[in-house]
Amino acid sequence: MTATIDDTIRIDTVVGAGDGALLELPAGATLRIVDLHGNQAVDTLLYDAHDVDNRYSAFDTVREQGAVYLTTGSRLLSTRLDELAVISDDTCGRHDTIGGACAQESNVIRYGEHTRHQHACRQTFLRYGAPAGIGQRQLGHNINFFMNVPVQPDGALKFDDGLSGPGKYVELRASRDLLVLISNCPQLNNPCNGWDPTPVRLIGRWA
């Protein structure tokens, strides 16, 4: 049997633990994020490719869908209530969008002064977002794909082991031209990465 080449694959890259990426997707494209080893949190922000101030809003997404967690069918909305993307496929089943991204400052508050100089997702966002004009004012609450953050009865958040496994994936379908900003989380101080950050694979497809 002759192997066929999928000529719709335009992006196929592995992002190392703690590294990041900035991807540009045309409307209608899909982006599959593959958890290669399992239990890895992938912090993600979405932007209108033509106006980075029109960015993903966790608050509006949660309110409009009436659910705290994201999965297949979830509409990812912007601060202007524009639909940026839809989760079109999901083999993990639940993703967090309220826990936020780790930062050096929050690490110190949560885990102690010894964590002050550990690398964090906020740094990765700023580094990879800079060429597109994404700075501190354009950062907001992000999506944490594969991350498990149960909401307690008193409203508190708990960072638990992820629900993902090797090879599980989530796929987004772009509803408009998008910039996707990713930090493959380096967090070592809670179990969101199973205490061992690992690489993920990004596969983008469009005609």
From TrEMBL:
<dbReference type="Pfam" id="PF09347">
    <property type="entry name" value="DUF1989"/>
</dbReference>
<feature type="domain" description="DUF1989">
    <location>
        <begin position="14"/>
        <end position="179"/>
    </location>
</feature>
<protein>
    <submittedName>
        <fullName>Urea carboxylase</fullName>
    </submittedName>
</protein>
<dbReference type="InterPro" id="IPR018959">
    <property type="entry name" value="DUF1989"/>
</dbReference>
<dbReference type="InterPro" id="IPR017791">
    <property type="entry name" value="UAAP2"/>
</dbReference>
